[in-house]
Amino acid sequence: MKPAAFDYCAPATLPEVVDLLSAADAAVIAGGQSLMPLLAFRLAVPSLLVDLRRVPGLDTIAIDDSGVRLGAKVRWCDIEENDRLATAHPLLREAVAHVAHYAIRNRGTVGGSLAHADPAAELPGIAVTCDAEIVLFGASGERVVAAAEFFTGPLSTARQSDEVITELRLPAWPERRRWAFREFSQRQGDFALAGVALFYDGDAQGRAHDAHVGVIGACDRPQRLPIVEAILNGATVGDVLIREAAALAAQAVDPPADLHADVAYRRALIATLVERALRAAQARRP
Amino acid sequence: MIGMNRYIGSPVERTEDLRFLRGRGEFVGDLWREGLLHAAILRSPAAHGHIRGIDVAPALELAGVRAVITATDLGVVPMIPLRLLPLPGTERFLQPVIAADRVRYVGEPVAVVVADSPALAEDGVGAITLEIVDLPPVIDRHTSGHGDALLFENSGTNLAMRFTATCGDIDAAFREAAYVRREQFQVQRHMAMTMEPRGVLAEWDGARERMTVFGAAKVAFFNRDTLAKLLGLRGSSVDLIENDVGGGFGARGEFYPEDFLIPFAARRLERPVRWIEDRREHLIAMNHARETDCDIEIACRRDGTILGVRGEVFVDIGAYIRTTGLIAPRTTTQFLTGPYRVPNQRIITEALLTNKTPTGTYRAPGRYEGSFFFERLLELAAHDLGIDIVEMRRRNLIGAAEMPYKLPLLEPSGPGAVTEADSGDYAEPLDRCLAEFGWEQKRALQGRVIDGRYHGIAIACFIEGAGMGPKETARLDLEIDGTITVYVGSAAVGQGLETVMGQIAADTLGIALDQVRVLHGSTPYLKEGYGSFHSRSTILGGSAVLEGARALVEKIRSAAAARFGVEATDIEFVDGRARTKDGRALSLAELAADRLRVDVEFSNNNTLTYAYGTAAAHVAVDPGTGQVELLDYVAVEDVGRIINPLTLHGQAVGGIVQGLGGAMMENLVYDANGQLLSGSLADYQIPTATDFPTIRAFALQNHPSPSNPLGVKGAGEGTIIPTGALMANAVANALASFGAMPTALPLSPARVWRMASTAAQSASKNLT
Amino acid sequence: MRVCFEVNGKAVEVDVEPRTHLADCLREVLRLTGTHLGCEHGVCGACTVIVDGAAVRSCLMLAVQAECSSVVTVEGLSNDEALTPLQTAFRKHHGLQCGFCTPGMLTTAHALLTDEPDADADRIREVLSGNLCRCTGYIGIVEAVLEARVAYRKTPPR
Fold first, then answer.
1. What are the residue ranges in chain A where pLDDT is below 50?
2. How many CB pairs under 8 A join A and C?
3. CA distances from B383 to A226, B338, B764, B766 (A)
4. Contact status, residue B301 vs residue B387, Cβ threshold 8 Å
5. Is B43 exposed, middle or buried (0-12, 13-18, 19+ CB in 10 A)?
6. Distance separating the N- and C-terminal Cα atoms of chain B
7. List of chain C residues with pLDDT < 50
8. Do C132 and B686 count as a contact with CB atoms less than 8 A apart?
9. pLDDT value of position B759
10. Cβ contact (<8 Å) for B279 and C39?
């Protein structure tokens, strides 16, 4: 399974990268953990590979009052090793702990995962759940796209062929937030059959507000479930509400059928995961 | 004479490991030759059709592409013969080495591109235009049986073979029975999935008319003879060399189309040619296995004594009969009832052709399927009759006093058609398993909910037949430096052959293991050999080495006697020295000039051995996700005699985990057009280190086999047998309150969830 | 394209097509065939090598991306006299049968224990879940890695 032939270059600056992408039938490569299998199966046959390895400034993790900014070349192992992220964005940390396997985590990147947009991938799910922004740089300069608009379908995004993802911006994470991440796959490290990321804040009376409930693997792209968020907001999260929310979640999704899961099962799995995530969030001592 | 056993019975560390651990193994993909060319195969994208045209010109135009070979270049396209069970009628359904005008499965070889690199060869494959006129694909055995679309019109049928197993009076048994139950069960298509994909490197020496082929495994001598015939060469002009082999499990080493095509290309181009299968190809081109369903009925007395079993079995064998394609069907038929006493049987099996990858043997072929079918039925009968599930097994196991026990007669006739369980007490592993598992303590967990998960336990018994003949060969040479080289016709597939044969030779000769070198498998070593399958290498190869070593001891004593002028009976050979009564001695190095050598062959007259055992499993099922966690698994097997407990344990655990993969997750799924959907290791999922961490395997050697001087029974394929049955019964027991009725594998999360999500009616009881 | 990097402590310079992955560069160009190809799509782990101290699937990395890197293969984990403690443990616990997945298991285990010499059985299994084995059922492999830990606690990393 050798790739079809391509040219390769590793420019030293972002503008050079963009020039190359604008001129040719090219693909960007960073860690290569998603792209290399596509090349091996000849599902992708670019004539040029543009490697980001020499471009500086894309590998920083910045944490401040505005939130968390992850450079596109930040790797999963970098997120794992960053102790500040444990408090700055525990949901991100928890989700990243589920990504793939040990060796892949040494090379796979934030930008690569977002650009690849697998419907069952964790980071796109976190991005959508958390109202993140994706920063792109292309021939027309920089633009910022909301995560909700970035993922357009399975393996499909709003990125233009001359653009490079440079950064993922996650909003600030309040300390007392209740949250949970639950995904299910048959084996460790497999793509999730389905996954749920959620959080809510509590008001002075202990009722939920600003609930965000996101699912992966339940649709052709990660999505939030506004109908579930609506019944949580303003309510006290307890047993009855949790079950109602789970049932609503199952109805709110339109899951695909594939080799590993049929529609009815995926729906039920979403319900189970929403229920378990809500219980975990509710039980959390913030 | 076997002295004090220093090695046999000991957990000797493997000699093979020294090179593997250093990264110095030599697998066929590691070989390189001056002027080496690389091949890639164009495979049919259609499941069934006529080839209207192939345009290879665009491929030939690519720089670095040296040749493209199609059926036209072969003239008459040879067929691949069956190695086992070449019964009358099978010649109609043999696979051609390359597709000529018809393709019958996605993946069937259509052209061979030879180029300067594997990447260029693959580019060449992509450049070929192939025009196929589609025919309706036969995608399952039901469609196949209807016969509206035929794979081989001239034969008038898709039925490749029918097998029957009979004993006793089945109609009387069912008339008398107080209880009968009939069910349908299904095992899914899955496969051996070796870590090393296949490979062939062929070298043609035109001046000497010698073809040397690397990458052989399992049955090199048979394949050498087959290749020679297909190439129109003398057997002595062809050598097949066995390098290191990355797993076999019954699937690697059989004669595949590439085993002809690559040597053909090498001869045609007069350059060495290497082909290494990639994983995508492997999933579509290497033998598939196990796709079998049944409709069977059991008849019992009220106390659970089985009176009879009858029914039909259907095997989807794919588009052609492969070299071992009929083994699983025949074995499912004859061994459906495994180690149980079922005096009246009639099982009829149909092996049916479909437009899918052809099938062949895969570890315990037919036994895995039969165990799933029969143990499910036994479990249902036990529950219906209110009999304890352990008692149901115990009461019906063939007893020690009944040995040897005649197994059902298989028709059509062939090796093993008439066979008997050779020796043993099947209750011993049952008792040991119950004790190790803690059955009495775990019993209370049956069907209980703990922390939201449903617990279930199950038990199953199995026998593994091994030692298909006719024989095996060995040669032992005393080398100039006093060491011994042992050549054996058995093949290494990763099972530790070198070490085990070395142990047997060293102990019999009474010398240190490091004085023995074992060479195996390759055709230059011996005049003939029979190979490794049906777990036969220790039985037959080991016995050949044993007898050869004994004979060599006699020759050593005679040679020393001649030197010393005494009778051979006055010579003692101990610790590598031949000694007279009065203390004169010669070392092996000193005797080397006598050029001592022994050639031996050992035959067991096709008297098979039957290792046997029991296994138990404890699972916890999460009804919300369908996840099944295996909390404990215990297997106990009596193997007759243990040569190396370390490697034996490895076989036992490896077989269990491989079987659990089939039980829970592996599945080769086809769509309605005959396209394989499970096209990568992301979709064809095998067990990883986190899936089944708690496996305990124990071996007994209480009842040696009477069929060979070592007393060993084949032990490579036993523990895989009950894995599907156990997981299904354990899950059924865990989810009994839901009326769960598992009838098919794999027990994927989606399938298990479904069982727990609908409250089913309780099964109808057929008590009369 | 010319690529310069270091393999097992030795500087190398190769000329490869851009599409050549690091595994094929090691195997076919440098003739270090200990690194094996089991899938070429990043699932099986047989091709695992250590690049700049981190375990990496060499089939998912282009050779040209190894420029200026330090690569260690299974051959580089050995010395010529005795087996290393990790290799000794694998042999003792029968953590290999056909040997095909073994190089990847060794490099992954070595990388893990170098960073985490106190890794427990769960962590070892979690990390090794990215390396497929069809022969052993993993029990012996995990036992071997557990036993090898003591050697990594004594020696300094890398």
1. none
2. 86
3. 48, 20, 11, 12
4. no
5. buried
6. 61
7. none
8. yes
9. 47
10. yes
Question: Phi and psi of C125, rounded to 5°?
Answer: -65, -40
CB B494 within 8 Å of CB C98:
yes
User: Predicted ipTM?
Assistant: 0.97
Q: A281: helix, coil or strand? A: helix
> Contact B334/B413 with Cβ under 8 angstroms?
no
Which residues of chain B have a CB within 8 Å of the CB of C121?
A: 693
**What integer pLDDT is reported at residue B766 of this predicted model?**
29
Contact between residue B262 and residue B202 where contact means Cβ atoms under 8 Å apart: yes
Report strand pairing: A208-216 vs A223-224. Answer: antiparallel
d(CA B708, CA B467): 10
Residues in chain B: 768
Within 8 A by CB and 6+ apart from C158, the residues are: C53, C114
Distance of alpha carbon B356 from alpha carbon B322, whole angstroms: 12
Write out the DSSP string of C26-72. IIIIS--TTS--S-SSSSS-TTEEEETTEEEEGGGSBGGGGTT-EEE
Read off φ and ψ for residue B259, nearest 5 degrees: -70, -15
pLDDT value at position C156? 58
Residue B406: what are its φ and ψ, rounded to 5°?
-70, 125
Q: What does pTM read for this prediction?
A: 0.97
Q: Which residues of chain B have pLDDT under 50?
A: 1-3, 759-768
Residue position matching structure tokens 């699972």: B619
Three-state DSSP at C64 gives: helix
Q: Give the chain C residue whose CA is nearest to the CA of A31.
A: C61
Rg (CA), chain A: 19
Q: Give the side-chain half-sphere CA count within 13 A for B646.
A: 23
State how far Cα A143 lies from the chain centre: 19
Amino acid at C141: I
| Portion 91-150 of C in contact with B at CB < 8 A | 91-92, 94, 96-103, 106, 121, 124-126, 128-142
**What's the confidence (pLDDT) of residue B415?**
85
Mapping DSSP to helix (H, G, I), strand (E, B) and coil, where does residue B617 land? strand
Report which secondary-structure segment, H or E, holds C112. helix C102-115
Cα separation of the two ends of chain C: 30
Distance of alpha carbon B224 from alpha carbon B526, whole angstroms: 12
Q: Closest partner residue to B20 among C17, C99, C125, by Cβ? A: C99
User: For residues C126 and C108, what is the distance between their CA atoms, to the nearest angstrom?
Assistant: 12
Q: Determine the Cα angle at B476 with ends B645 and B579, to 5°.
A: 90
Q: How big is chain C, counted in residues?
A: 158
Residues in CB range of B378: below 8 A, 6 or more apart: B298, B306, B340, B392, B393, B396
Give the mutation candidate from B17, B19, B38, B666 for the C interface (greatest C CB count, under 10 A). Answer: B17
Torsion of CA A106, A108, A111, A114, to 10 degrees: -140
| Interface size, chain A vs chain B, as Cβ–Cβ contacts under 8 Å | 67
Tell me if B253 sits within 8 A of B28, measured CB to CB. no
The two beta strands, B179-187 and B292-300, are antiparallel
Can you tell me the distance from the alpha carbon of B622 to that of A98, in angstroms, rounded to the nearest whole number?
Answer: 20
In the prediction, which pLDDT does C155 show? Answer: 61
Contact assignment for C129 to B692 by CB distance below 8 Å: no
CA separation for the pair B502, B497 (Å, rounded): 8
Q: With contacts defined as CB-CB under 8 Å, which chain B residues touch C36?
A: 27, 29, 195-196, 246
Measure the CA–CA gap between B725 and B664, rounded to whole angstroms. 11
H or E stretch including A113? helix A110-116
Q: Residues B680-704: pLDDT tens digits?
A: 999 999 999 999 999 999 999 999 9
Q: Transcribe B508-560 into DSSP letters.
A: HHT--GGGEEEEES-GGG-S----S-TT-IIIIIIHHHHHHHHHHHHHHHHHH
For CA atoms B14, B361, B49, B66, give the dihedral sign: positive
CA separation for the pair B560, B572 (Å, rounded)? 9
